DsbA family protein (Paenibacillus tritici), 244 residues
Amino acid sequence: MNKPKPNHSRNTRGNGRILPMLLAVIAVLLIAIFVFILTNGKSSGTAGLDNLPNYTDVKGKIVVDGLKYEKQPHLGKEDARVKVIEFADFKCPACKNWTASYLDTFIKDYVDTGKVQFYFMNFAFIDRDSYLAASAGEAIHRQSNEKFWEYLHKLYANQGDESEIWATQKFILGFVKDNIEGIDYGQFEQDLKNHTYMYDVKEDFKIAGAYGVNGTPKFMVNGVLLPDSSYEGLSAAIEAALNK
């Protein structure tokens, strides 16, 4: 007598339905995770862009009609025979290195001896937080020329990665509060948040560009832009100016 064969058709059909459903659930979960990571990554990557200025937002016509020494942070005597301008960006690693390697020697050799009056001029071009760091420097300079140079030294010492947005409003407010004493912090905070001195930053940028500046650091001696940024080249140009 032949026994009836077991009927597996129902189980087979059930298994056939479960597998596609599981795959569909897994696919949905993977898509959800991917979207979350992508969205979160974009959010964290652009969070630093909040409240950052843009040159296109700066109102007012800018006319290039001279170097405007009187508006720039400076060191040295007014009657010095040689005027030297450094064009720099606070996000520029080469500017940081030049300051750390040569500025103290330069001041000792040329500024303290009365030979040179030294000026700092913004050429903020690397990114939008360059503009904000520059406008913070302008705000401090308007309160105290001396405190500007303290800001310059300490900000370079705390410089972030050139390829990243690090000089955000939050960072600069905290940095100045913790590191720069002797200024009206409330006024500084207001100036930074209101982009009070962004016109001046953009004006510096336009002036520098009109005189041929295309990178940082760059130096100008008595109105002549130097071809390189070496200390030897700067010293030679100053000595030549003094010997005229």
Observations:
- Helices lie at 9-46, 93-111, 128-143, 145-157, 169-179, 185-193, 198-210, 231-242.
- The chain has eight helices and five strands.
- Residues 9-46 form the longest helix (38 residues).
